[in-house]
Write a structure and sequence with these properties.
- 2 copies of one chain form a homodimer.
- With 142 residues, chain A is mainly α.
- Chain A has 2 domains: 69 residues, Orthogonal Bundle (Multidrug-efflux Transporter Regulator, Chain: A, Domain 2), CATH 1.10.1660.10; 43 residues, no CATH class.
- In chain A, 60% of the residues lie in helices and 3% in strands.
- Chain A contains 6 helices and 2 strands; from the N terminus they run ααββαααα.
- In chain A, helix 5 packs across helix 6.
- The first copy, chain A, binds a DNA duplex (30 and 30 nucleotides) through helix 2.
- Chains A, B: One of its GO terms (molecular function) is DNA binding.
- Chains A, B: Pfam families: MerR, MerR-DNA-bind.
- Chains A, B: Keywords: Coiled coil, DNA-binding, Transcription, Transcription regulation.
Chain lengths: 142, 142
DNA sequence: CTTGAACCTCCAGTAGCTTGAGGATGTAGG
DNA sequence: CCTACATCCTCAAGCTACTGGAGGTTCAAG
């Protein structure tokens, strides 16, 4: 039986985050000691690991909730899980493209700022001047 | 003279976002019509473009605030702007690395899910099983 | 039995907006 | 000049995914 702190250490989460997950119904209400402290078993460790891992992969909590529901019903076709992953992949690729453009621009900014005065500084120019923009002007994603 | 809606269209922002920026002091209070509607000139258009662009480059509003303060005092050395950009570049490179690992993992998930039942689905397996994780288990960054 | 780390609940705050209610303004067409 | 209606206004609350703190209790070691 694990305390909440031990569970946090094992999964790399924070204690408050676990309580938050419980609050929003992503983690179940665990057993308690006489004194009211939470105690966790292996099922909860697995579940939280799943959540942690999915979060690190960029899944939103709602998507994770869907995935957890799916994995509770193993006889359903997995199309749904697949499409969630596909959606995720698409978003990741968009973010990558934007970040790569951003890196290029920032590298240029840093290289061209050679320690002059602000008035000559490319860092500010690049941000001021739209025509030098290498990125497309779409939404900034979540 | 631009209405707030026209300014929004020109910069690709939303009307409410512009009002929000005004509220937090990132945009100045503009002139108003007799009836109380906001009217913007070129200075505001430039400033908002700057903000939009910087946001798309991943700068936080606080960093943007710093940059705007800098660009209001063009006689200062630009070291400060440079160091902001450098900080940003470092973060971007970290995010890129994480996202690339993520893409690999998601691609694997999507390719290996061959339309079976949920119980056989790699998407859920990969998320369940830590040993298959290709990403490092660090913080998910903002 | 004491000590101190770890636990508890509840509440507020964070970023960066977004949405909605309920009402006023501005402008184009008739 | 008047009407319609898109756009504007303010204010307030809501969103995601946590994080931090206050103030108090429990647990395990020594």
């Amino acid at each position: 039986m694990l305390t909440i702190g031990a569970l946090a250490r094992k999964t790399g989460s924070k204690v408050q985050t676990i309580r938050y997950y419980e609050q929003i119904g992503l983690m179940p209400e665990p057993g308690r000691t006489e004194g009211g402290q939470r105690r966790y078993g292996d099922a909860e460790l697995d579940r939280l690991s799943f959540i942690r891992h999915a979060r690190q992969l960029g899944f939103r909590l709602e998507a994770i909730r869907e995935l957890l529901n799916l994995s509770d019903q193993p006889d359903k076709p997995c199309q749904e899980a697949d499409s969630i992953a596909r959606r995720q992949l698409k978003q990741v690729e968009q973010r990558l493209a934007r970040l790569e453009a951003l890196r290029t621009e920032l590298e240029r900014m840093v290289h061209e700022c050679s320690g002059g005065r602000t008035a000559d500084c490319r860092v500010l120019e690049v941000l001021r001047d739209h025509s030098e923009c290498l990125t497309d002007h779409n939404e900034i994603g979540a």
